[in-house]
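re: ur question from yesterday

yeah so i grabbed the chain u mentioned. its 266 aa long if i counted rite. heres the sequnce exactly as i have it in my notes:
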Amino acid sequence: MLVAGWGKRPDVLHDFGREVYLAWRVAAGDVLYRDLAHFNGPLSVWWNAAVLSLPGAGIQTLLAANGLVLLVGLPLLDRLLPRFASPLARSAAATAFVVLCGTAHLIGIGGFDFVAPYAHEATHGMVLAVAALLCLARLREKPTAARSLLAGVLVGLVFLTKVEIALAAGLCVLATLATGPGTGAATSPRWRPALVAGLLAPPAGAWSLSSLSFGPAAAFEALARPWAALLSGRLSAEPFYGAVTGTADLAGNLARFAAVGAAEAG
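ran it thru and got these structure tokens back, copy pasting raw so excuse formatting
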């Protein structure tokens, strides 16, 4: 079972043990946000809990599921990149994604790739966002209610992962709604309402499901917490986020970046 799997891969437990713990407890019957503190959206925890609910599931099962997410993301990138990149750039991007993001172990701990991510919300959100971008691109070519609904649902699922990725995907939806289809595309009058309906469906479903466990107001507060932190500036004020984003010493980091760039150019 799960605990036995931990003993086989203590390095993985060290790297993304909290992610596994949350999913394990939800699979055992605990309720996310009520019994377990969590800052990001619920989708990844719920998905991982479903994976760990399989008979005999453990760490290796979750790693295999993460590998499947990677395999799904590759063909999506392969379909999206030709729309704005040359063949050389497309090949370079795909290679860099596999080598650097897929299974790379570039630092002292191994929890920063797609197979053993530090935060599953980042990997799940990225793959869903790429799928959503591909749908939005096709939507501009031929706006139909079905395509709009699918694109909206994918972006809505992104909103249940990580706020940074959701913000980028949401801006893409706003741009699509504002600019409309491409020139000469046959337009369905229902594509905009379908896109908005699809976008709202996953968050509304997550809120409804959480409301059954700890009430509508608390469920809304839990799902909105990452956005409230972003808008209030609490995230940018955290020393950890300042360190990892480089804003804690922005002037010094920019100077070092310029120095390294000058050295490489010379």
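noticed a couple things. Residues 191-214 form the longest helix (24 residues). also The radius of gyration is 20 Å.
anyway ttyl
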